[in-house]
Design a protein that fits this description.
Elements: H1 4-7, H2 11-29, H3 34-58, H4 73-96, H5 101-105, H6 121-137, H7 148-171, H8 178-198, H9 210-235, H10 240-260, H11 270-295, H12 305-327
Helix pairs in contact: 2-12, 3-4, 3-6, 3-7, 3-12, 6-7, 6-8, 8-9, 8-10, 10-11, 10-12, 11-12
């Protein structure tokens, strides 16, 4: 059965782009240029994504919901996300290198300082992927029984613990470092979004046993992400930044179609799911083509064009959709 907002599509999704686009542009260009935004906004936005997930999917927009004027709820939560993102970015910087505030906010801080891109990105990305694994793939089990506020804090702590584990055991040991690790994490994120945002858990939701469903879901998502990375990197010969850029476009397309437009024009049957996936493929292709065409026209020094494409898809468009739908609750259009 369709929700009330789904019945208002596609007008509701089109109206939502009025708020999503400015947020995306701010994150993609907010540091003054495309490259500066990758170097500065990229880590800040990525470290902020677990906070966005916590407030949207665990806290259900608390503490913004405590305000008397509910139209300010989304804005208050967004301010909290921004402040928290700065704190977590500084913490991540201290873990991977040393505390250096200038290195957080300056695109070219100098040799004596500690830039957060790309050094801190594996930690930030690992924490966000772990947060989605807890929230979407594992259905919040068993943390939901703690109550929404405590469960959200514990989920954030666990996601950071998982991020630290991946950083120390995978990145720092040299097993899979830098851009290749990022490409693997993005590949897992693609499976998370396609299965649990676009397809709303299908076909795994058909498994009645919760234990079997959760084990299978995690195995499918992580295994599918790993297989995707291996096929694209080793068999197809794609460079890791290209995999991340393509995956970022798919994640952006999946969130736009599956979350902003709630699967429109598809419906909940097999044909509808096929239509929805086709729409995701088309939107993702357009996003990738447009972003890549723009990035290829720019002269890059520290970053690559694919770095910005991935940033624009994952952190700019993706965060804009989640902020509008998950935290802003589509205000004022709802």
């Amino acid at each position: 059965m369709k929700t009330r907002t789904a019945l208002a599509q596609p007008a509701l999704g089109v109206a939502g782009t009025i708020l999503v686009v400015p947020v995306a542009l701010l994150v993609a260009f907010g540091a003054g240029s495309a490259e500066s935004s990758v170097l500065v906004m990229g880590p800040l936005a990525t470290f902020g994504l677990p906070l966005i997930a916590m407030i949207a999917f665990w806290w259900e927009d608390w503490p913004g919901t405590t305000l008397r004027r509910q139209e300010w709820s989304g804005w208050a939560d967004t301010v909290l996300v921004i402040a928290g993102a700065v704190v977590l970015t500084v913490a991540g910087q201290a873990i991977v290198d040393h505390l250096d505030v200038r290195g957080v906010f300056e695109p070219n801080p100098g040799a004596a300082h500690a830039p957060t891109f790309p050094q801190a990105m594996p930690l930030a990305a690992s924490a966000f992927v772990a947060m989605l694994e807890l929230t979407l793939v594992s259905e919040g089990w068993p943390l939901r029984r703690l109550g929404q506020l405590r469960a959200g804090v514990v989920a954030l702590a666990i996601s950071w613990a998982a991020g630290l584990a991946v950083y120390w055991l995978v990145d720092r040991t040299g097993l899979l470092t830098g851009a290749p690790l990022g490409a693997l994490l993005v590949s897992i994120g693609v499976w998370q979004v396609l299965l649990f945002v676009v397809l709303q858990g299908w076909p795994l939701s058909e498994v009645r046993s919760q234990a079997l469903r959760l084990v299978t879901a995690n195995a499918v998502v992580i295994g599918g992400g790993w297989l995707t990375y291996v096929v694209l990197h080793r068999a197809a010969g794609w460079h890791a930044p290209t995999i991340s850029a393509t995956g970022g476009a798919v994640v952006a397309g999946g969130l736009l179609v599956g979350m902003l437009f709630e699967g429109w024009p598809g419906v909940g049957d097999a044909r509808g799911r096929a239509v929805t996936l086709a729409a995701v493929a088309a939107v993702s292709a357009v996003i990738y083509a447009v972003l890549t065409a723009y990035a290829d026209r720019i002269d890059w020094v520290r970053a690559e064009p694919a770095d910005w494409v991935a940033h624009a898809g994952l952190s700019a468009i993706g965060a804009g959709v989640i902020l509008h739908v998950g935290i802003g609750r589509r205000r004022p259009f709802a």
